[in-house]
Design goal:
The complex is a heterotrimer. By secondary structure, chain A is an all-alpha fold. Chain A is built from ten helices and no strands. Chain A is globular and about 55 Å long. Chain B folds into two domains: about 110 residues, Roll (Ubiquitin-like (UB roll)), CATH 3.10.20.30; about 130 residues, Fumarate Reductase Iron-sulfur Protein, Chain B, domain 2. Chain B has nine helices and seven strands. By secondary structure, chain C is an alpha/beta fold. Classes of the chains: A mainly alpha, B alpha+beta, C alpha/beta.
Chain lengths: ~230, ~250, ~650
């Protein structure tokens, strides 16, 4: 199978899974924006995306995408290291045309993954997972399982989490600015004219995603400060 | 008029592919700015021979930037700091008095060192042999003007065909990928009507050979394009990807 | 006087009218059937335009081909550096071109010292070369209508030169290289890269193989075949500084010469008029600026000597000299062809001006090539489109932008018309040994026209040798593959090993390059652009001294049994000295001025070359008579039946 065996095929897998994840991020970000305006509306969404069969299927699909994207990144990185040879250059210089992100995608990816683990612990483990366990008959408290607003306020009330999430989002921004046009390049949808257009579109998309997420983090952190000050 | 400069030259010396290499530093005195980088090495080699030592081995031939033989990694750049030029077209006026100049061979698993700064690039020939041609024999060809080719297409094909096969792309790539080299040839032929007939076959076999020979995977860092002495564009890589994916989907 | 041999050479020119000779030859030649081709091996040494195209074509026909080159890849051969273009009598421009006109221009450009039949054949097949290359995917320049573009070149009044930017040689070579790769993939051609031929093996009077050194391991190896083809280019590097690549050498040809192949017209060396002037004694090579620049650039020096002095002292710049004080000497002397006179004429005219003190750089050895007028006429953009890459290259080397100030150029050794003597079949005087491309002498006479080298290399490789080779091999189908254990192979290998051991044992104090520079200096000084009896006699004496220096003072560090670049260079230098002597003997013998050979004793009052058709209308073929002996001369008379031999006139 060429997708699994050839170098271009493996990168097609990276591109397609990456693009799908970008679409998911856009969706997730739009959903989060609701929390800025109405906590109740946000909780409705949380309920809607709780332990329902379609949400579970989507979650499973999403998890598969992340796993595929990461596993292939790992395989490709190992191969690339090997191809580079045992002896490193003593003196290296980065041409100005080369984006920093493009040479550090794997490291950025690992940061994004660690952030994801934290994120799952902060939210998913307390929400969908609790519901699922409850359905499976475990003795868990489901009181706040669909109260997303509560968890957001809890998490981003802590400055430590705020900083960690900002670091995570910045890493994600760098990852996406390269990932977006790179995916299209790998799929062959690029040429000299579209090169700059895709890069520009990629930067806009990445920035919208990150600003969307960040606004929620900062807004809730601000509210927590206000609340503290008011009390 | 160009000034003379003095500097230290830190050169990679390695007896053979399996032997341990190391850097040796040679002080260079009063080198005129209009000396080419390779002429500067000639001067050093002359000195070494006069001292009874073995000269530094490096590949070079035409010394006018077209044969693709010269292959030095100078101060972190394949072919040195100049853009759009090969090592042989690099002149000492680009450096300053008192500099330390580091000279290394192309480093890539697919390009083993033969000696000192000379590497084995026969992998490139093997990739070309896998499909870098139009399968025709000599003779029995229709008139050259039988198929008109739009000027812009011919120009774009020429842009790709300008590749000199030096391997700077591989040496610059943190992944040791040969995609720019392969894509230049695939692009040239995919653009021209003469090459279209077997475009799919060519893309598949050249990529397969490239993978087999241990080159890395392209992650679109664009270092290849930035360091290419002939400024080959990565839009060729996009075209190669397109040709390859199209070919595989058709199968 | 040279010792004249009684031997006669048979040039095997077919019967019939000129235009029908090649057709007749092909119609009556012997062929080899496909089943037999499989059993016949051919060694091709060299992978330039001639070598690669021959190897690919012979492979495609079904022969087993062994193809050797000294570089790491066939694509590095120096054909790659040809810039300007390739001629072909296509008459796409409807400007009156024809096979006859290309033939005539080539004969005339060669100053009536080439064989009519060979040149006509060259012109006949020229069109097919373009067809072949286009089919290979060579991206020639095109017009907006999608058809091929042409440019004009020195020595012709029609536009018949096809080009791919300033990289025509590269694109044609990559085309031939791709054809070679196709055959390599099919297993019909086996490539031996980083191998250098060190001797040709002759068994029972026929060439049957070569001895080659693996340049990476240092191992001496034997290769047998039914025929051997030499396609190793010219010997211009005898001058040390030339436009040739560093590795270009005449060694393979010289080994054939030592084994009995006669060497023709060695003194005909072309000096290219548009090279970047020499800048210092550490320089390793001269960079050519394409002759196509002469299409739009105007060549001049100051009219006034004081302006020239000021330029030499760096007190004035070209732009300080008004138009009326500029001497466009080519336009003045040759109104009909102007800046597009053939190379030898342009080179000598530059030398004449510089000798009179009108040189324009600090050494006084340069003239201007000015694009001011072209920029005024066409606009900077058009000039940039046509010559941009050449201008960039010039600026990188000299730090001067040709858009602002005129280029400085001076003649340099570029191409050698002389080479191994071959008959009409491209076969040397040793049966089974063929020579093609620049390595042979055949088509350019005493001077080669621009854009004709590519044409000749590819004509020989694609369309001539594949035919004539069959005519030879048809008799050889019964000959089984040779064992490389034959005594001739053993002896040849031993001779090579002995020679190497002798070189390694000198253990002197001087590097190969330092002796090579000395040789180059002698060659340029005494066997250069203008030669005299005295200068040539001096050269012969001095060359003997260089040879002595070589054998007593050479130092080769390292060992012979591994990669050893100095040893490679030393072996080549030995042959450069030999060819240098041959050039001097030949130049001394040729008491006339023609093409690339200019004897000061033989010039008109105006300083134009004076040819002597009465006494020198022959090919001077030199036969090796042993180490240290003077070679013998064999004359092959040239009979012009279809062209009227006349004084070359580019004035009106």
């Amino acid at each position: 199978m060429w997708l699994l065996k050839s170098s271009v095929g493996k990168k097609v897998i990276m591109s397609v899974s990456g693009m799908a994840l970008i679409l998911f991020l856009l969706f997730h970000m739009s959903m989060n924006l609701v929390a800025l305006f109405s906590g109740d509306a946000y909780n409705m969404i949380c309920e809607f995306l709780g332990a329902n069969w379609y949400a579970l299927v989507a979650t499973a699909g999403l998890a598969a995408l992340v796993v595929v994207h990461f596993v292939y990144a790992f395989i490709l990185t190992i191969q690339n290291k090997k191809a580079r040879g045992a002896q490193p250059y003593a003196y290296t210089a980065k041409p100005k045309e080369v984006e920093w992100a493009s040479q550090n995608m794997f490291v950025l990816g690992v940061i994004v993954l660690l952030g994801l683990v934290l994120h799952l612990y902060n939210f998913w483990a307390k929400m969908q997972l609790v519901e699922v366990m409850h359905m499976l008959g475990a003795d868990v408290c489901t009181q706040n399982a669909t109260n997303g607003t509560y968890h957001i306020a809890q998490t981003f009330g802590s400055p430590v989490y705020v900083v960690l999430y900002i670091v995570w989002l910045v890493a994600l921004w760098f990852h996406l600015t390269h990932g977006f046009w790179s995916a299209l390049q790998t799929l062959g949808w690029n040429n000299q004219v579209w090169f700059n257009r895709w890069r520009c579109i990629g930067n806009v998309v990445a920035t919208i995603i990150i600003l969307g997420f960040m606004s929620v983090v900062l807004c809730y952190f601000g509210r927590s400060l206000c609340a503290g000050a008011c009390c | 008029m160009d000034k003379n400069i003095s500097f230290n030259l830190k050169v990679w010396r390695q007896r053979g592919p399996k032997e341990q290499g190391k850097f040796v530093t040679y002080p260079m005195k009063d080198i005129p700015g209009d000396t080419s980088f390779l002429e500067m090495l000639d001067i050093l080699n002359e000195d070494l021979i006069n001292k009874g030592e073995e000269p530094i081995v490096f590949d070079h031939d035409c010394r006018e930037g077209i044969c693709g033989m010269c292959s030095l990694y100078v101060n972190g750049h394949p072919h040195g700091p100049a853009t759009g030029a090969t090592t042989c077209q690099l002149y000492m006026r680009r450096f300053n008095d008192g500099d330390t100049i580091t000279v290394e061979p192309w480093r890539s698993a697919a390009f083993p060192v033969i000696r000192d700064l000379m590497v084995d690039r026969s992998a490139f020939d093997k990739i070309q042999q896998a499909g870098g041609y139009v399968s025709i024999n000599t003779g029995g060809i229709p008139d050259a003007n039988a198929i008109p080719i739009p000027k812009d297409i011919a120009e774009e094909a020429m842009d790709a065909a300008a590749c000199i096969g030096c391997g700077a792309c591989v040496s610059a790539c943190k992944n040791g990928s040969a995609m720019l080299f392969v894509s230049a040839k695939v692009s040239q032929f995919a653009l021209l009507p003469q090459g279209k007939a077997e475009a799919a076959r060519r893309a598949k076999s050249m990529v397969a050979k490239m993978d087999e020979l241990g080159f890395g995977n392209c992650t679109n860092t664009r270092a290849c394009e930035a360091e290419c002495p002939k400024c080959i564009s990565i839009s060729n890589i996009a075209r190669l990807n397109r040709e390859f994916i199209k070919a595989k989907l058709k199968d | 006087m040279a010792k004249i041999s009684s031997e006669k050479l048979n040039s095997k020119i077919p019967e019939g009218p000129l235009a029908e000779k090649w057709t007749n030859y092909k119609a009556h030649q012997k062929l080899v059937n496909p089943a037999n081709k499989r059993n016949l091996d051919i060694i091709v040494v060299g992978t330039g335009l001639a070598g690669a195209s021959a190897a690919a074509s012979l492979g495609a026909m079904g022969f087993n081909v062994l193809n050797f080159c000294i570089q790491d890849s066939p694509r590095r051969a120096h054909s790659i550096a040809a810039q300007g273009g390739i001629n072909a009598a296509k008459n796409y421009q409807n400007d009156g071109d024809s096979v006859y006109r290309l033939f005539y221009d080539t004969i005339k450009g060669g100053d009536y010292r080439a064989r009519e039949a060979n040149v006509h054949r060259l012109a006949e097949v020229s069109g097919a070369i373009i067809d072949q290359c286009v089919a290979q995917g060579v991206p020639f320049a095109r017009e907006y209508g999608g058809l091929l573009a042409n440019r004009s070149f020195g020595g012709a009044q029609v536009s018949r030169t096809f080009y791919a930017r300033g990289q025509t040689g590269q694109q044609l070579l990559l085309g031939a290289y791709s054809a070679l790769n196709y055959q390599a993939n099919l297993g019909k051609v086996k490539l031996y890269t980083r191998y250098e031929m060190l001797d040709v093996v002759v068994i029972d009077g026929r060439a049957r193989g070569i001895i080659a050194r693996n340049l990476v391991t240092g191992k001496i190896e034997r290769f047998a075949a039914h025929a051997v083809v030499i396609a190793t280019g010219g010997y211009g590097n005898a001058y040390f500084l030339s436009t040739n690549a560093m590795g270009s050498n005449g060694s393979a040809a010289l080994q054939c010469y030592r084994k009995g192949a006669v060497f023709a017209n060695p003194c005909f060396a072309q000096i290219h008029p548009t090279c970047i002037p020499v800048h210092g004694d550490k320089q390793s090579k001269l960079t050519l600026m394409s002759e196509s620049l002469r299409n739009d650039g105007r060549i001049w020096v100051p009219k006034k000597l004081e302006d020239a002095k000021a330029l030499q002292a760096g007190k004035k710049r070209a732009s300080d000299i008004p138009d009326e004080d500029r001497d466009f000497y080519l336009e003045r002397r040759y109104p009909a062809f102007g800046n597009l006179v053939p190379r030898d004429v342009a080179s000598r005219a530059a030398k004449e001006r510089c000798d009179k003190g009108f040189g324009v750089n600090n050494t006084g050895l340069a003239v201007f090539l000015d694009f001011k007028y072209a920029i005024q006429r066409l606009g900077k953009e058009v000039v940039k489109q046509r010559y941009g890459n050449l201008f960039d290259m010039y600026e990188e080397i000299t730090d001067v932008s040709p858009y602002e100030e005129p280029m400085m150029i001076f003649p340099a050794i570029h191409y050698t018309m002389g080479g191994i003597w071959v008959d009409y079949e491209l076969q040397t005087s040793i049966p089974g040994l063929f020579a093609i491309g620049e390595a042979n002498f055949s088509d350019h006479g005493a001077n080669r026209l621009g854009a004709s080298a590519l044409m000749q290399g590819l004509a020989d490789g694609y369309f001539v040798l594949p035919y004539t080779m069959q005519n030879y091999l048809a008799d050889q189908i019964q000959v089984p593959r040779f064992s490389t254990d034959a005594p001739e192979f053993v002896a040849a290998e031993k001779a090579v090993n002995d020679k190497i051991a002798k070189l390694m044992a000198i253990k002197g104090k001087r590097s190969v390059d330092s002796i090579h520079k000395e040789l180059g200096h002698i060659m340029w000084e005494y066997v250069g652009m203008a030669r005299t009896k005295e200068s040539l006699e001096t050269a012969i004496k001095k060359l003997a001294e260089v040879e002595k220096t070589f054998w007593s003072e050479l130092r080769i560090p390292g060992e012979a049994s591994s990669l050893n670049v100095e040893l490679e260079k030393a072996l080549r230098l030995l042959d450069f000295i030999e060819v240098g002597k041959l050039m001097a003997y030949d130049a001394l013998n040729r008491e006339e001025s023609c093409g690339g050979h200019f004897r000061e004793e033989h010039q008109t009052e105006e300083g134009e070359a004076k040819r002597d058709d009465e006494n020198f209308s022959y090919v001077a073929c030199w036969k090796y008579t042993g180490e240290g002996n003077e070679p013998e001369l064999i004359k092959e008379d040239l009979n012009y039946q279809y062209t009227k031999v006349q004084t070359r006139n580019y004035k009106n």
